[in-house]
Structures are given as C-alpha cells and as structure tokens.
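Give me the fold.
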Amino acid sequence: MFTGIVEELGEVTAVEQLDDASRFRLRGPVVTDDAKHGDSIAVNGVCLTVVETADGEFTADVMAETLKRSSLGALTVGSRVNLERPMALGGRLGGHLVQGHVDGTGSIVSRTPSEHWELVKVSLPAELSRYVVEKGSITVDGVSLTVVEAAADHFTISLIPTTLALTTLGIKQPGDPVNLEVDVLAKYVERLLGAGVDPLHAPEATE
C-alpha cells in the first residue's frame, strides 16, 4: 500500500525487451537505500517488484499486461519517473490509500500557469468518470492529488510548486500519457451498493 507522496524523481537507465515482458533498470538512490529483492516500489504509480539493486539502481520486470494497461510501455532510457516505497505500518498517511494498481491511462490536455500554482486538465476514460468527484482524491502518475473539477471526459488538478519541481507532472506536456488510479473506496462502495447492501447499515458478522 502506498500514499501517493512521491519520494524521489528517478530515471530509467536501461530497458531490456523480453519475450512477453520488459526489464527496466531505474536510478533511485533514495528508494533503493533499504530495498532488497522482492520488495515493492511504485514507478509512476505502478507497483513493481524489485529484482535486484546495485549502486543506487534497481531492476524490475514489467509483464505485457502492465505495459498494455499503463504508460510504462512508453518509457525509454532517460525517462524521468516518480518513485515511492510502500508505507510502513504505523507511518503517516500523507496522501490517500493508493494500491499501485493502475485503473487506466489519461493524457495531459492543457496546462494553465498561475502565480502560485498550475492548473492541469487531464483526459479521463469514460469507464472511470463515475469514480472521480470534485474535491475527491485521484492518483496521477503515482501522485496523490485533489480533484478541482470533475467532468465526464476530463478532470482538473492544481499543482503546487513542490509537486511541479519534484515529480514528473512538472515536465509532462499536452499529449503525454499519465497513469490513473481512482480512489479504491469509491469502487468498494459501488460494489456494496450494486449488491443491495447499505454500507452504513451493513449486517454484523456472525460466527
């Protein structure tokens, strides 16, 4: 489980094409400081498993399904990426609950700079629009953000200088793809309501 608070802006240093997957090597001295084989690291919001680490870099295998359903397939050597280690049990939840399971991809539609922040419009797949609400949470390329405006085919977010400087959202341009993960709580509520269960008055469990 992650929180959507990016720890480090890393970089892709190598990409190896395998039969049905790709192996990425990524530079991230902060997130690899205590990482070992089998640990998880979120890369642009996608939870990946560490294969090995060395000299501030780590490698991770990305299967074809993940490459297809996320923007990781567009990464090349030199691409910058958002990196985050899982939240430690008992740690502060600085953003919101993020699984690292991408629900779909959008793209940057426009950027409108202001004096103290930048308003960014992001396209939204139709099947995800019902989960996105004004002032709700959404994860964009692994960054926990608050929705400013929610529409049927897009949403907007305001980016503060820190986010612009320390994440990929500061350098993404109109047309660039981004990974989207909606608030998992919204999906659970939808499932409960679809089953005819009132989540506020659910029956107590019995032995």
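The helical segments are 64-69, 161-166, 184-194.
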